[in-house]
Design brief:
The complex is a heterodimer of chains A (550) and B (267).
Chain A lengths: L1 H16 L10 E6 L14 H10 L4 E4 L4 E4 L2 E7 L4 E6 L13 H12 L19 E4 L4 E5 L37 E7 L3 E6 L18 E6 L3 H9 L5 E2 L4 H8 L4 E17 L9 H7 L2 H9 L3 H8 L4 E3 L23 H10 L3 E3 L2 E3 L7 E7 L3 H15 L4 E7 L1 H11 L4 E6 L10 H4 L18 H15 L3 H18 L2 E14 L2 E2 L18 E2 L2 H6 L2
Parallel strand pairs in A: 1-10, 16-17, 16-18
Antiparallel strand pairs in A: 2-3, 4-5, 5-7, 6-7, 8-9, 9-10, 11-19, 12-18, 12-19, 13-19, 14-15, 20-21
Helix pairs in contact in A: 7-9, 13-14
Chain B lengths: L2 H18 L1 H4 L31 H37 L1 H16 L2 H11 L6 H15 L2 H15 L2 H8 L4 H12 L1 H22 L13 H6 L4 H6 L5 H17 L6
Classes of the chains: A alpha+beta (550), B mainly alpha (267).
């Protein structure tokens, strides 16, 4: 009996000392959003604050697990692809209720999706589903089954359901987004003071439960404080007024990483890349000789080789960034093409590339074959200190090969006007924020006919053979149901982009964030929302803290 | 001249000499990036440390002073001259002239400046040299920054209009232009001086903020405006207090101006 008694003692001791503590229920989680949401209508939301509210309040059929980057069933128990990628069938979860207690059924899914795919509607979330002409047909097949038929194969379309919050067919469409609207997510909006805060309270009917069968979430309420100024946001965090900051500048991260009542996280390269591109639009309001420079591959590759990306990562981002070989970051584990070489800093190689295109260095200045000194301006958005510093480093790097660069920081609307309408600019430095892991979410960037094809948008026909090849590859991957074949096609797109340099990708910024050390179950991820993606499972360490925030 | 004023004059003159010949005094080029010495603390080589791109802060401060100490007073002078002419004439003449002039002033004051400046930026080519942008910026500031001062000067001139001094001069047959030039303007000198001094720091700070609109002083050229803008990063300032050097110079120059122009007596 003695050994058995010891074992019992050991088990009891392990349970007391080593087992994870039971989650504490209650409290209020506070964090900042950069601006007021433009709308609280979950189908209309397109700005970040609106999307955050939608994420926290909306129930979706499928949810992307931010940690594993895989799709998981949510309000749909299961799903399957049919007709060679032309249709999706969802089996809807039973016994789910809206926050007002009414039942959630397949009819609500059909209502939501028909509203979303209505050709007369302009819901931003519907754009990704539209693949060519033809209507998307939604129909209910049985009590719990909904089928969606696309006019063309829509590879990867299922992941877009992560952004489609189901709405109740009983709630009037013109009151969508109003306080009191029934929702299926873990929280519901109970108070909104524009310019001040949005308060969310737990959804008493949220369908997920913890191990004991009690309905999640653990935390009673959320307060989203409207705070545009990032310095003030960090200050509020260090004073304990808010519990997390999901995007930190390197300087702030360095400060917080020194220690305090929080945990600072460096998640490595994020999904976004900083990039520079030259205006190749035929209608651009720039001299013809500049158009000739910018459409020359040797010129673009020469400029690329003259940029010291390692210095940008080290000097501007304090080492919390990595030189970028292409548009897809290694954080996007499946779609990243590791064969794309990282561009090296090679000013001599740059001059050799440029010499092949007829450029010569004379008197410390680089000149083209027509004798024009190579001078151009880089526009970027004002107020972004990191980007302005990056521009200053580029200016200095290019000066070393005799190129004179003028930096012009513009307010964002003026910059967009030049880049998308008047085409009155030479080069532009901006960040590429890819929130969608799938390449189909980047169709708007890569297709030559797309309006976000930054260097030469909305082409009637591809201006170059390599752009035509990218078009073909992107359309092929969008129609291909086999992931490996899709990957092969998109890998090729990345290789062509690296060879032709229509965009000079500079660095991938690291995802830096910080969380109060009293908040538990946090699992930071590079895919946003980085810190609250599992909000229903977050809880405060101590009952005292939870009570203080009640 | 008192000893304090003399000291202020010497200090200001020294600063201006340094500004006029920055290449002789600055230890490094303002744009040179020491990329291995980013945000470095003060040292023998870099007495004020380096900035976030590893540029020598002392050199940047000297070159920034050239831009701001030469152009901001010039723009303030232009604005004060316009204000003196318009406000002085309006106040002196009164009646319809005053009404029209003050309506024009109200119009300028009520203009949505953000949009006016955005339009100005849209008209200007992007590839302008930094010096051209600075010149245009300060001309814009001088040309449109007079309205507030004009109202003050108009009120002061109006109070002179019925003074015994002017009545006596008029009675003696003094022509109107001479009355204005020899009696009204000299009596407005202290107000003009005050407006001039107020406008200098206003223009320096405005230039710093105009960087947001793509106007102002562009990289890599430094100005007091963009150096002061860096102080908005309060945690960085707390960690690197030597970043306050531009503010100290700014306060010192403003103080010197004040000492030299104010009517008080300083021992």
């Amino acid at each position: 009996m003695k050994p058995f008694g010891c074992l019992l003692y050991f088990v009891a001791f392990w349970n007391l000392a080593g087992a994870p503590p039971a989650p504490v229920w209650g409290g209020e989680l506070r964090f900042c959003v950069r601006a007021d949401p433009k709308t609280l209508d979950p189908l209309q939301s397109a700005d970040q604050p609106g999307e955050t509210v939608r994420y926290l309040t909306g129930g979706v059929l499928l949810r992307l697990n931010r940690a594993t980057q895989t799709l998981e069933p949510e309000l749909a128990e299961s799903w399957r692809t049919e007709a060679g990628g032309r249709a999706l069938e969802f089996r809807i979860r039973k016994d789910v209720k809206f926050s007002d207690g009414s039942a959630f059924t397949a009819a609500d899914v059909v209502y939501t999706l028909k509203a979303l795919f209505d050709p007369a509607s302009t819901f931003p979330a519907a754009d990704g589903f539209r693949r060519g002409p033809g209507a998307i047909v939604v129909e209910q097949r049985g009590p719990d089954v909904v089928r969606i038929a696309f006019p063309n194969a829509a590879a990867g379309a299922e992941r877009l359901f992560d952004e489609v919050a189901m709405v109740s067919k009983r709630w009037p469409a013109d009151r969508r987004g109003a306080i009191g609207m029934p929702v299926l997510g873990p929280y519901r909006v109970v108070e909104y003071r524009p310019g001040d805060y949005i308060r969310l309270a737990r959804n008493p009917n949220f369908w997920r439960t913890d191990a004991t069968g009690r309905r999640l979430p653990y935390i009673d309420s959320l307060r989203l404080i409207v705070q545009q100024n990032r310095s003030l946001e960090v200050r509020r965090f260090t004073k304990g007024e808010i519990d997390l900051v999901d995007t930190l500048d390197p300087e702030d991260y360095a400060r917080l990483a020194r220690g305090g009542a929080w945990r600072a996280h460096n998640l490595g390269p994020g999904l976004g890349a900083e990039q520079l591109w030259f205006n190749q639009t035929p209608a651009g309001r720039i001299p013809d000789y500049k158009k000739a420079w910018f459409s020359s591959r040797e010129f673009r590759n020469g400029m690329s080789a003259a940029l010291n990306r390692a210095d940008i990562a080290r000097v501007v981002y304090g080492g919390w960034a990595a030189p970028a070989p292409g548009a897809v970051s290694p954080a996007n584990s499946f779609w990243f093409n590791s064969r794309v070489p990282a561009p090296a800093y090679a000013p001599q190689q740059a001059l050799a590339d440029l010499a092949r295109a007829g450029f010569r260095s004379t008197g410390g200045a680089l000149r083209d074959s027509g004798g024009h000194a190579v001078e151009f301006s880089i526009i970027t958005n004002s107020g972004n200190q990191m980007r302005e510093r990056t521009a200053a480093l580029i200016q200095d790097d290019l000066a070393k090969i005799g190129v004179r660069v003028t930096i012009v920081a513009l307010d964002f609307p003026s910059l967009l006007e030049r880049v998308t309408h008047t085409f009155d600019y030479d080069a532009c430095l901006l960040g590429f924020s890819s929130v969608d892991l799938d390449p189909s979410g980047q169709m708007n960037l890569w297709l030559s006919s797309a309006n976000a094809h930054a260097w030469n948008p909305e082409q009637k026909a591809p201006a170059t053979e390599w752009e035509a090849e990218i078009d073909r590859l992107m359309e092929r991957q969008a129609a291909e149901p086999v992931p490996a074949k899709r990957k092969a096609a998109f890998d090729r797109v990345q290789e062509i982009a690296a060879r032709e340099s229509p965009m000079l990708f500079l660095v991938y910024r690291n995802t830096l964030c910080a969380v109060s050390s009293e908040l538990r179950n946090v699992s930071p991820a590079v895919v946003g929302p980085s810190l609250i993606w599992n909000v229903e499972r977050l809880y405060f360490e101590s009952a005292r803290r939870a009570e203080a925030r009640r | 001249m008192t000893s304090v004023r003399r000291a202020a004059a010497i200090l200001l003159a020294s600063i201006y000499v340094v500004c006029l010949f920055p290449g002789w005094v600055a230890p490094f080029d303002y744009a040179h990036q020491f990329r291995d010495l980013v945000a470095a603390p003060p040292s023998a080589r870099h007495p004020l440390g380096t900035d976030a791109l590893g540029r020598d802060s002392l050199s940047r401060l000297i070159y920034a002073s050239r831009v701001s100490l030469l152009l901001a007073p010039a723009a303030a002078l232009l604005a004060t001259a316009i204000a003196a002419l318009l406000g002085g004439v309006a106040g002196y003449c009164g009646g319809g002239v005053e009404t029209v002039a003050m309506k024009a002033t109200d119009l300028v004051l009520s203009l949505p400046w953000l949009f006016v400046l955005l339009i100005a930026r849209a008209w200007m080519p992007l590839s302008m040299l930094p010096w051209q942008t600075i010149g245009i910026t300060f001309i814009l500031l001088g040309s449109f920054g007079w309205a507030g001062a004009a109202r003050v000067i108009c009120a002061a001139a109006a109070s002179l209009r019925s003074s015994d001094m002017l009545l006596h001069a008029k009675a003696c047959g003094c022509p109107r232009w001479r009355l204005f030039a020899m009696h009204v303007l000299p009596n407005l000198r202290s107000i003009l001086l005050a407006q001039f001094l107020i406008l200098i720091p206003v223009f320096i700070l405005t230039e710093g903020n105009l960087g947001v609109l793509g106007l102002g002083v562009g990289e890599p050229l430094p100005s007091w405006g963009n150096l002061l803008r860096e102080l908005m990063n309060l945690p960085a300032v707390a960690e690197r207090p030597w970043m306050l050097a531009p503010l100290a110079v700014f306060a010192m120059v403003t103080g010197c101006f004040y000492l030299l122009t104010s009517p008080g007596d300083y021992a």
